[in-house]
Amino acid sequence: MANTTTRSPVSFGSLPAELRNEIYHYTLVEETPIQLPYAYENTPFHEPPLLATSAWIRAEAAPIYYGSNTFSAPSPPAAHFFLCKNTAETISLIKTFRPIDLVLPWSAHKRWTDALVWNLNRLVKKNLCPEAVEVPLRGEEGDLEWCRLADIEGLEVVWQGEGFWSVQWKDEEED
């Protein structure tokens, strides 16, 4: 006698949230930083098509995509272009953002870091968390290191109101 039991089809939505999150992680998280296009190329940044599948999938998957990947801009204008083209909600999901890849020795820091502070302050965008911003530094041994702003001695993040911040040098009198 043939088995007449029919199974109902399994849908993606019927999977446990933990399994869906694992699928999102495997399909959306890159091992290397996601390189943003140069601003002069006038090429828009494209999200993975999975995020456009439905509002429900976007709500579940966007925090994984933006929160688990590192986004790297080749220049401050490219970073600015990327930030201006995204919503404040999307920007708030970013956990690691590298707005510049110019690497100079930290020992020659005064001119470079003044330029860095100026560029970072130009990039201030509502909901971009300053803890997400990393900048490249070359140590005394010549090794490249990505450092969070909070880890750079002498710099401080100054809150300027709801969601807005800037970077400045600490007063030398505090030493």
User: What is the average per-residue confidence, as pLDDT, rounded to a whole number?
Assistant: 83
Spatially, the strands of the biggest sheet line up as 1-2-3
Shape: elongated
**Uncertain regions spanning at least 5 consecutive residues:** none
Structural class: alpha/beta
Radius of gyration: 21 Å
Helix tally equals 5
What proportion strand? 15-25%
Q: How many separate domains make up the residues?
A: 1
Helicity range: 25-40%
Could you explain the architecture of this structure?
The chain has five helices and seven strands. By secondary structure, the chain is α/β, with parallel strands linked by helices. It has one domain. The strands form three sheets. The chain has a three-stranded parallel beta sheet. Strands 4-5 form a two-stranded antiparallel sheet. Strands 6-7 form a two-stranded antiparallel sheet. A hairpin with a 5-residue loop joins β4 and β5 (144-148). The radius of gyration is 21 Å and the shape is elongated. It starts with 16 loop residues before the first helix and ends in a 6-residue tail after the last strand. The mean pLDDT is 83.
